[in-house]
Specification:
The protein contains nine helices and eleven strands. 33% of the residues lie in helices and 20% in strands.
Length: 230
């Protein structure tokens, strides 16, 4: 797998994955962390790295790394009190990367994705997360509603974010073990997933725009959970 961008490559070197080779422009190759990487570094032009990375957002560096290893969902539920983010068919790599970055920074236990109709951890997700996926447990599950049931049985409260919900997120207790369930872009939570939540909560919108991005909403709820003492 190729990852690109300075932060994603840097965090891959610091994380559990194996980094096989780094390709960097002459200027990027002089970065101290690249010089200390301990893996082969090959100097290439910007155009050559663009072709290798498949993106112009590489910032002069990309690397070949081992495949991303997903966590087991059961491990997240047994990792202790905390917050898990479950995503219902989020398909935009930028949104998944943003959520993973917020989740890692907020100290979440991890992120759960459905195996189907959901974006996976790709190079674009690594870039959008600024490398946070290298330090965050991400699990894939066959059925999200089954996971929510397992979470409830493990003592978690499941709160689904829904713009139409009448319950303000500030009115619920986010201090215990919780699962924050976020819906897909434009469609929100599927009915069965929403019905599997203990409650649906919303964020107040006081401007003229009628919704937040799923990444922005997830960040607000994650840090609300932090403030509540998760």
């Amino acid at each position: 797998m190729i990852v690109y961008g300075r932060n994603p490559v840097h965090e891959a070197l610091r994380g559990p994955r194996s980094v096989v080779t780094i390709w960097a422009t002459a200027s990027a190759a002089r970065e101290p962390w690249i010089e200390r990487a301990g893996v082969p570094v090959i100097t290439q032009t910007t155009q050559e790295i663009t072709l290798r990375a498949g993106s112009e957002g590489h910032q002069g560096v990309c690397a070949e790394v081992s495949a991303y290893r997903y966590a087991a969902a059961e491990e997240l539920l047994s990792a202790g009190p905390g917050v898990v983010v479950a995503l219902d068919q989020v398909q935009d790599p930028q949104n998944l990367g943003s959520i993973c970055r917020s989740a890692e920074c907020a100290g979440a236990l991890g992120v759960v994705l459905p195996e189907r109709r959901s974006v996976e951890v790709t190079a674009a997700v690594c870039k959008a997360s600024a490398g946070a996926v290298e330090h965050l447990a991400v699990a894939q599950v066959r059925n999200l509603t089954d996971f929510l049931l397992a979470a409830k049985n493990a003592g978690f409260w499941c709160y689904g974010a829904a713009g139409e919900a009448g319950l303000d997120y500030r009115a619920v207790d986010l201090s215990g073990p919780i699962v924050l369930v976020m819906g897909s872009e434009g469609r929100g939570l599927r009915p069965r997933v929403a019905a599997s939540c203990d409650a649906l909560i919303s964020l107040p919108l006081r401007g003229r725009i009628d919704s937040l991005s799923v990444g922005a909403a997830a960040a607000v709820l994650l840090y609300a959970a932090c403030a509540a003492g998760v």
